[in-house]
Amino acid sequence: MSPFIKVLLGAAAGAALGFLYYKLIGCRSGACPLAGNPWISSGWWALIGGLLASGLK
Asked: Disulfide: which of 2, 14, 32, 33 matches 27 by Cβ 3.0-4.6 Å?
C-alpha cells in the first residue's frame, strides 16, 4: 500500500473519531476549544490519525 494512501486512511479514521468524540463526549457549553466545535475536533484528530499512520510500517 502506498504511504500516501496509508496517511489519508489514517487521517480519515482520525477525523471520524474526532467527530464521534465531539458528538458523544464533547463540551456542551461551547467553552472547550477542542471539543466544542466539530470542525476543530475533527481536524485535530485527523492530524493525529495521519501522523500515527505515517509512522506505522
From this structure: 32
